[in-house]
């Protein structure tokens, strides 16, 4: 084990600047990378040339060993050590041999919500915002003459690392990952789920009832004129939220839906004939811009689609939402962004907040207990809602229900 790693075990107390921060800075200054892993150190010591499969970094070790009884002074030293490591390129979402990010290690140890946890989340937000800037074709970067590959994407930590989670990659490769592939995939309504016929991706599941209830309530929270209540729901799925919206008798209830099998089911179930219901057939990207020119405004807009990414929201949806929302209106959405891991989930929570504020919207999150969670990759136990579903898409203990309104 290297001296840098040794330092992160906090074998002697108290944790002081002299004993810990000063040598940490010296190692980093001497050129030891902040991402130097114990696996690399082991291979180096034993003359093994293969690339290690996991990455237990100094940040993982700090998160694993920071004592729970540290006083404020010690805590501040640890936080400064973390800051130094972040500044020197430590990866907030690199995975150790237990498939954990540093944040996941803290969570397992019961350190959720501590300053150490916030440090991991903030580092993720910074990395995500930086990555977005680097990928923005409108932003030009000056080449650093000292570094040939200054703009090399590989050097930039990603929100979800390539090897962060196999299932995230699967998601991008299957129907859940590409809208057009999804729209050409046959769907099947089961008792308590809407799934893709081949591959059994869960499109919508009954366990989300509680979350839809919170969503439908948000949409009716700030009604401008009780005689002219206009609601828009994007993504019909099993019609759970639309049924809840109908029960509140809005004046007009717009539903945007793109999948032919879902539209067929909506016809069979009489949604086209319900008073005040307007079905917008096709992708929201194609149908909603039209409403902007027609002077239609909404008290509430809910968004919950499938196979789309955060880029779809930030690049296109938010533009449309601010154009269609009444000044008093509420925008809410199914918040599954980064829900594979709590630390990613909280990074996205902050990123969404930042992005919506650029549109003059402020978002509040109501913390709910997630109705189902699984820590297993494939939970096939008889009583699991994930039985026969390829990928458990929810693994967080909490759900952050968003409600956005103009500031
Ligand atoms: C998760 S389900 C919605 C579930 C719904 N909130 C409920 O309560 O049952 C997602 C729905 O969005 C639809 N969808 C996916 N992409 C779409 C798009 N670009 N435009 C409109 N609908 C889309 C899917 O076909 C699917 O019916």
Automatic annotation (TrEMBL):
From the Swiss-Prot or TrEMBL record, state where the protein is found. Cytoplasm; Nucleus
Primary localisation category: cytoplasm
Give the InterPro entries listed for this entry.
Arginine_N-MeTrfase_2 (IPR017408), RMT2/GAMT_Mtase (IPR051038), RMT2_dom (IPR026480), SAM-dependent_MTases_sf (IPR029063)
- Subunit structure, briefly? Monomer.
Which top EC class applies here? transferase
Under SUPFAM superfamilies, the record lists: S-adenosyl-L-methionine-dependent methyltransferases (SSF53335)
Task: State the coiled-coil residue ranges.
Answer: none
| EC number, as in UniProt | 2.1.1.-
The keyword Ion transport is annotated on this UniProt entry: no
Q: Which organism is it from?
A: Pichia membranifaciens NRRL Y-2026
User: Gene3D superfamilies, alphabetically?
Assistant: Vaccinia Virus protein VP39
CDD domains in UniProt? AdoMet_MTases
PANTHER family the UniProt entry points to: GUANIDINOACETATE N-METHYLTRANSFERASE
Instruction: Say what the protein does.
Output: S-adenosyl-L-methionine-dependent protein-arginine N-methyltransferase that methylates the delta-nitrogen atom of arginine residues to form N5-methylarginine (type IV) in target proteins. Monomethylates ribosomal protein L12.
User: Could you state one GO cellular component term attached to this entry?
Assistant: nucleus
Q: What is this protein identified as?
A: Arginine N-methyltransferase 2
Q: Output one GO BP term.
A: methylation
Segments forming domain RMT2: 175-407
Q: Which domain of life is it from?
A: Eukaryota
Alphabetical UniProt keywords: Cytoplasm, Methyltransferase, Nucleus, S-adenosyl-L-methionine, Transferase
MF GO annotations = protein arginine N5-methyltransferase activity
Q: Which family is this protein grouped under?
A: Belongs to the class I-like SAM-binding methyltransferase superfamily. RMT2 methyltransferase family.
């Amino acid at each position: 084990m290297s001296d840098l790693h040794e330092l992160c075990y906090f074998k002697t107390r108290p944790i002081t600047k002299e004993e810990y921060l000063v040598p940490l800075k010296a190692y980093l200054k001497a050129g030891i990378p902040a991402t130097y892993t114990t696996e690399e150190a082991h291979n180096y010591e034993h003359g093994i040339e293969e690339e290690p499969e996991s990455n237990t970094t100094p940040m993982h070790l700090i998160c694993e060993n920071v004592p729970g009884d540290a006083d404020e002074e010690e805590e501040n030293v640890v936080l400064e050590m973390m800051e130094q490591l972040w500044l020197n390129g430590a990866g907030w979402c690199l995975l150790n041999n237990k498939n954990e990010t540093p944040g996941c290690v803290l969570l397992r140890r019961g350190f959720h919500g501590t300053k150490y946890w916030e440090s991991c989340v903030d580092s993720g937000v910074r990395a995500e915002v930086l990555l977005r800037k680097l990928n923005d074709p409108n932003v030009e970067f000056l080449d650093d003459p000292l570094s040939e590959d200054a703009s090399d994407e590989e050097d930039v930590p990603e929100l979800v690392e390539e090897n962060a989670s196999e299932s995230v990659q699967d998601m991008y490769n299957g129907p859940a990952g590409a809208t057009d592939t999804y729209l050409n995939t046959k769907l099947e309504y089961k008792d308590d789920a809407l799934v893709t016929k081949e591959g059994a991706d869960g499109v919508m599941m009954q366990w989300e009832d509680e979350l839809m209830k919170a969503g439908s309530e948000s949409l009716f929270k700030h009604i401008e004129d009780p005689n002219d209540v206009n609601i828009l729901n994007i993504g019909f799925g099993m019609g759970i939220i639309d049924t809840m919206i109908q029960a509140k008798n809005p004046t007009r209830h717009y539903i945007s839906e793109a999948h032919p099998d879902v539209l067929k089911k909506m016809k069979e179930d009489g949604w086209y004939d319900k008073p005040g219901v307007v079905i917008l057939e096709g992708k929201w990207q194609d149908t909603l811009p039209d409403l902007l020119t027609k002077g239609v405004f909404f008290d509430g807009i809910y968004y919950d689609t499938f196979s789309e990414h955060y880029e779809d929201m930030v690049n296109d949806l938010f533009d449309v939402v601010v154009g269609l929302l009444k000044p008093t209106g509420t925008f809410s959405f199914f918040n599954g962004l980064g829900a594979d891991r709590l630390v990613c989930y909280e990074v996205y929570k902050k990123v969404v907040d930042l992005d919506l504020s650029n549109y003059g919207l402020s978002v509040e999150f109501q913390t709910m207990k997630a109705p189902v969670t699984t820590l297993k990759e494939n939970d096939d136990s008889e009583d699991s809602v994930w039985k026969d579903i390829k990928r458990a898409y929810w693994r967080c203990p909490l759900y952050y229900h968003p409600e956005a309104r103009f500031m």
